[in-house]
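Sat 14:20. Reprocessing the chain from the morning session after the first attempt stalled halfway. Input below, unchanged.
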Amino acid sequence: MDNCLDNTDKCPYLCKNDPKMTVKTKPRSVLREYEKHLGDRFWMVEEAASGVPASALFDLIDLTHLDKKFFAGALNLSTKTLDRYRVDGKQLNPSSGEMILKLYSLVKKGEEIFGNADEFGKWIEKPAYGLGFKVPKELMKSTAGVDLVMDELIRIEYGDLA
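Finished this time. Tokens:
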């Protein structure tokens, strides 16, 4: 089925029963393919080199509620370019693909630590003691910053807050 708006009775998504939903959204199927491999950094490098579809980026936007402008800045691409990549079904270049996979890994770890994406989303907006009182979201614009935020999440997980 190409468009569930044409026949809501056969809509495979749960949105038809939710009165709060104004737009029908698909499950994050592209990101689900990557979920089981996120702990394997060799796989991440190889997958990024082989090409991550731009649709994975938009799935990540839906998951995190971070805006497209944030990701455009992190990937050093314009928002128009990101939209064009999605419409054309293009793949991201290896460095952008790696950044998306690292961010997804970070988000999954954050959900694990904080219990859900919303609580993690609140945490990344506030200065963090273990990051020198820097805002995690601002650090997440570079791969080194993503690594720093991941290290802080691991410290939180193990109770090493000093």
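Residues 94-114 form the longest helix (21 residues).
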